[in-house]
Amino acid sequence: MTKKDLAAQTVASLKKIYPDAICSLTYRNPVELLIAVRLSAQCTDARVNKVTPVLFAAYPTLDSLCEASAEDIGEIIKPCGLFNTKARDIKALALMIRDQYAGCVPDSMEKLLKLPGVGRKTANLILGDVYGKPAIVADTHCIRISGRIGLTDGTKDPVKVEKQLRECVEPQEGSDLCHRFVLFGRDTCTARSPKCGHCPLSGFCENPAGDVKKGAIEKDA
Ligand code: SF4
Q1: In a domain, 50, yes or no
Q2: Tens digits of per-residue pLDDT, 99-111?
């Protein structure tokens, strides 16, 4: 089976299981999504979803975020961890979006990567979810599952995973596929002890039992 065929089968199977693939972070506009993604580094989406309503109630507009002190932002986002760095980034990116991008989250990878604290994973998520552009969010679930299925060569390097998936996944399917990988990675293809015996992808997955076979063990994300 070619990689493209494998990717098409994976997309079709996961679409059946998770017809509604959406980001598990809650947000009302692109700026809120960007901030929620920044907060989600080394933090669960569930916790971020508890903190962001408080943050956005205190600072409901881009201007109000720009005027806030990093210390005050940090107090609110403390439960998300790494709060000093995250608070500095949130204030700095709010200022940059207001002053350099006329209040709009940019729609290109190049510009997104210039925002403080924004890497390719975040930029891809914005491009896919906000602008409907082809995107691959190479997070821990995407890296692990695509390697097990055989869509990648098993590399853990997110840039290589993104490149390899872009070569085999239909561009319009990439963003949703990555959201589905997150749900599938929590339910079935877990980091430890994947449920291969009950997996609907087991008929074509190239590495059932996944990384366990290779001796590499990851922590659940
Ligand atoms: S067969 Fe196992 S390793 Fe392959 S996708 Fe399913 S749960 Fe993951």
Answers
A1: yes
A2: 999 999 999 999 9
